[in-house]
Each structure stands twice: as C-alpha cells, then as structure tokens.
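Exam revision sheet. Question 4 asks you to relate a sequence to its structure. Input first:
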Amino acid sequence: MLPLPSVFVVLALAQPPELVVPAIDPAPIARILAGVDSKRAFSTLVELCDDIGHRLSGSPQLEKAVAWGVARLKADGHENVRAEPVQVPKWVRGKESLTLISPREVSLTMLGLGGSIGTPEKGITAEVIVAVDEADLERQASAIKGKIVLFNNPMAAYHPEKGPGYGDAVRFRAIGPGLAAKHGAVAVLVRSVTAHSLATPHTGGTSTREGPPPIPAAAVTVEDAELLARFAARGKKPTVTLRMEARSEGMAPSANVVAELRGRELPSEIVIISGHLDSWDVGQGAHDDGSGVVMAMEALGTLRRLGLQPRRTIRVVLWTNEENGLAGARQYVLDHATELPDHVAAIEADTGCYAPIGYRVEAKDPAVTLKATAQLDELLRHLAPVGATHAEPGFSGSDIMPLKEHGVLLLGHHMDLSTYFDIHHTPADTVDKIQPEVLAQNVAALAATAWILAEVPVRLGALQ
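Answer key, structure tokens:
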C-alpha cells in the first residue's frame, strides 16, 4: 500500500435531502453471504503466499504470480481472462547492514527503503543526527552536513475514531531523504512506521524524484531508533556504518491480470473489484495485498459458482506495481480509455484482512460522493451477517485513484485497522497471520457489494 497522507482522513459531508435509494432484491445477497467457501479462499491465498512468496516489481516471483492469476481465473471459468502488459520499475535490494560503531558496537536491524540508492562498497560511516520532525531538522541544519539523519517521528497509536496514525508519520519515509539531503546529509534512517514493534523493521517506498541528488535511505526498528535517540540526547554522538547494495535496474515487463463475469443486460457497463499482486520483497505479502487479490478472485468465483449473473459486468483487476510506482494503474487508464465512461464503480481491497466494516467512498464531484455514500450506507444493511454495513466518505485505494478524474465512483474496502500496521511491509506479513473465517467474511462482503453496484437499476450517486 502506497503512503498517502490523506489515506485515513474522513471527509465530513452532510446528509443529502430526500435521498432515493435504488431498490434491490435481497435474496441474491443472502445467497452470496452464505455461499463463500472459506477453505477454498484460504487455500488460494496459501498457494500465492507459500508457493510464490514475495512479489516485488520486476522480480521473477511477480511474473510467476501473474501467470498463476491467469491460470486460476481461467480454471474458474471466467470470461475474457488475460494479462495486459505493463512496464514496471525494477529495484533490487541486495545485501545491506547497519552497525553501531560508537559508543559501543552492535548490529542494528534495518531494511533499505524501496527506490533508495546504495552506498559505496565500504559503506558510509558517520555520526547520527536525530530529528523528530521538519522543525527539529531545521533547528539543527548547521550540524547536518556529512552526517546521517535519523527521523525519529513516532506513529500515533490507533484511535477508535481517528484511526491509525500512519498517514501523518509516513511522510518521513517518503520525503525524509530529500529534506535531509538539502542540508548535506550523507544518508537517512527512518523510524519504522508503526505504533507497535517487536524489533521488526518496516520497509516501503521513498522518493528520489525531486530535490538534491538522492542519498541512501533505510528504515530502522522503533527500538533501535530509540536507542540512537537516547545516545544522542546524552551527548554520546552515536556513529554508525550503513552498507547497502540497493540499485535500480530500469524497467521490466509485467502485467495487470483481468477477468470478467459478463453482465446480462448492460455488459458494456463495468464494476471493478481489485487488489494488487505485487508486494515488497520481505515476508509473503499476505495482508498487503495477497488477501485483497484473493478477495477479488474469490468474490467473482463465488458469484459464478452460485449462477448469479448481474445486470452489469463485474471485472476483476489484479494490479501490478502498486507498491513502488502505480504503473499498472496508469497503464490501465491508457489501455481502457474508450471504456472509462462506462466504468460504473471501482473497488480496491488493500488494507489487509481483518473484520470488515464497510466501504469508504469518493468521486470527483463532491455531490456524487455525498449521494453515493448515503445510498450505499442504506444498501449495506443487507450485509449485516458479515458486519460490512457502514459507508463513509474517504480514501478508496491507490490503484483506482487514476479513475477518479474520469468520473468513476471509487470504493475502498474498509475493515478494522487497529493492528494492520503492526506487520505492514515487514518480514512478519505471512499467511499464518490470516484467519480463514475472516478472509471468507471479506470475500462475502466484496462479492455482495459488487453485486449491488452491478445490479441496481441506476448508478449510485447519479445526479438528476
């Protein structure tokens, strides 16, 4: 999942007057909610995670996942199954290490940030300057040249109303190297973006596109960030050696995977359900976003196995290159330019696999967002058996965002995020963290919501 500062900001919109909610037959929805095979869904996820593993853009594993996705969707009997070519960036981690040299010698746990450059072969040895935020960095500007900057900005703990603190804290992973490089820093360390840690580093993408020439950047654990900060606060001048073989190797071929359940009355009108196939090169990408991939695949498979054919076409898209480039999302818009006016809605599942809550809704026109959210909130009452009954305005998903400018209604598959960022982008994101029954609940919620969007007589949010 890409870092977007607005990911968990919910818009405050008023209830529209005289809301008209499209009528829908509840019987098929009840069949969908009862018809998901939890063993099948989890078995599919195990295949992706155990047999293929992590799936970084440009890697052989990602292309194996593309072929796997095409084969599985064809075996399920879907129409128009295909891999649509996309060129993606290829970044290679290589060997890496971080060692505290002074005031004592100890190996620190780290992960290079995606897109970072490497260090010289012998590494970079320098004192660490600790900054809490941008203002703290500016106060120490005169002391930064030739040093390694550590951004030790804690992520706020999950709040029942405000949600996770990820959107605020992640900015240092994204822009920290550029901020530090402006003052002559030779490398950057970033406190892992999590509120809870068991000495586990969290990787993620960083930006090298703007500002001064890029410098090496790595994430450190919360525990090691605090250790370095304590040394610095006591005047101990912590010194480390950072070694990274990270490098970019240009572009590589990949593909979005597409499959359809064709509509019975309006087959040219399309509802997308989606997740992203790629992941970071640590762990198995089970929550981020193998679970979202399986939710989309099994949602379509559930509808087909139940013999339910919606009014409009439901299209699965398994995106490539969400984590470090969004090349798949951009290519989809180019490849399907003539179809975009007929895209009724798009859903992305990219926040792991936890208890479903409902959907976050957004559209280019705020009035459409307002109306569609209110309509969906009423329609989701049919999903009470799986708990996905709430709709609210908010961020939908990174891969479907390019569709927003083309008037497509966007929905983010929303769930309990209280523990998601404990393992996000870490070696701990493995299939054993997924509960099969919860995965089945999410498959059911996604299938039912896709059915609603594809079946209602008029598009949700349509303005008179």
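Marking note for examiners. The first helix runs from residue 26 to 34.
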